[in-house]
């Protein structure tokens, strides 16, 4: 089985850089109250090789360092690292193999998003910010057991039906988000929890007024192609 020493200097340099990025982004999960204890994980895929960097399994966030991040191939086999990789590694690897434009994946158990997942409900698109970020509702995916690529397969199958959404709520489990890199996937995780909380609060007040899809499409196009710095 290949080790990191079998790869060239360009790959090893990117691994070092991505380890730092992924380690630092785990602290953002804590900052935005998206995880507790050792739950959740961030990964990023490399551009120079079919490898990814992911959190080690069961390690507390305050003990994470760039060197503790684990490097695997896109089948989930460890290439470098002294710790066992996340229990979600096979699912992250499956997503990368089947969604070639995705370079970042995040999983959390954030409270409100996971509450919607526990009830098997999509988060309805009742906010312009949801049109912006998700292009519609945040969809719920099927129930799948942890420890294999089954969750990743459920994520890919669900997002194929919602191609504008960077998030899926896996039933009875929690949100998975994707992005062009790990930072984009962390942003999507934070946004998912924000809209999950707001839509929950809205439902306590009354019926949610969902936005027409034609207007959602306009919102999403503006946000993705006009908003911000380019």
UniProtKB/TrEMBL annotation:
Essential cofactor(s):
Zn(2+)
- In Pfam terms, one family for this protein is Aldolase_II
Entry-linked SMART domains: Aldolase_II (SM01007)
Which Enzyme Commission number(s) are on file for it?
5.1.3.4
UniProt-listed Gene3D superfamilies: Class II aldolase/adducin N-terminal domain
What are the GO MF terms of this UniProt record? aldehyde-lyase activity; L-ribulose-phosphate 4-epimerase activity; metal ion binding
Catalysed transformations (reactions) = L-ribulose 5-phosphate = D-xylulose 5-phosphate
Record keywords:
Metal-binding, Zinc
Occurrences of domain Class II aldolase/adducin N-terminal (ranges) = 20-200
Please provide one cellular component term from the Gene Ontology annotations of this protein. Answer: cytosol
An example GO BP is: pentose catabolic process
- Give a yes or no for keyword Ligase in this entry: no
Query: NCBIfam families this protein is in?
Result: PRK06557.1
Name of the featured protein: L-ribulose-5-phosphate 4-epimerase
């Amino acid at each position: 089985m290949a080790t990191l020493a079998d790869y060239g200097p360009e790959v090893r340099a990117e691994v070092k850089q991505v380890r730092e990025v992924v380690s630092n982004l785990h602290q953002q999960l804590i900052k935005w109250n998206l995880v507790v204890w050792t739950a959740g994980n961030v990964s990023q895929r490399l551009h120079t090789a079919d490898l990814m960097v992911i959190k080690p399994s069961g390690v507390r966030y305050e003990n994470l360092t760039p060197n503790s991040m684990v490097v695997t191939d896109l089948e989930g086999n460890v290439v470098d690292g002294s710790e066992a990789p996340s229990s979600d590694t096979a699912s992250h690897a499956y997503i990368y193999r089947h969604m070639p434009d995705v370079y970042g994946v995040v999983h959390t158990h954030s409270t409100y998003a996971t509450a919607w997942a526990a009830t098997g409900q999509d988060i309805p698109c009742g906010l312009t910010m949801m049109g912006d970020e998700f292009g519609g509702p945040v969809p719920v995916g099927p129930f799948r057991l942890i420890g294999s690529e089954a969750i990743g397969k459920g994520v890919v199958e669900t997002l194929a039906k919602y191609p504008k959404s960077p998030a899926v709520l896996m039933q009875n489990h929690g949100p998975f988000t994707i992005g062009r890199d790990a930072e984009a996937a962390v942003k999507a995780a934070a946004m998912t929890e924000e809209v999950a909380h707001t839509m929950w609060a809205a439902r306590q007040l009354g019926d949610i007024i969902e936005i027409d899809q034609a207007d959602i499409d306009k919102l999403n196009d503006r946000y993705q192609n006009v908003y911000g710095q380019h």
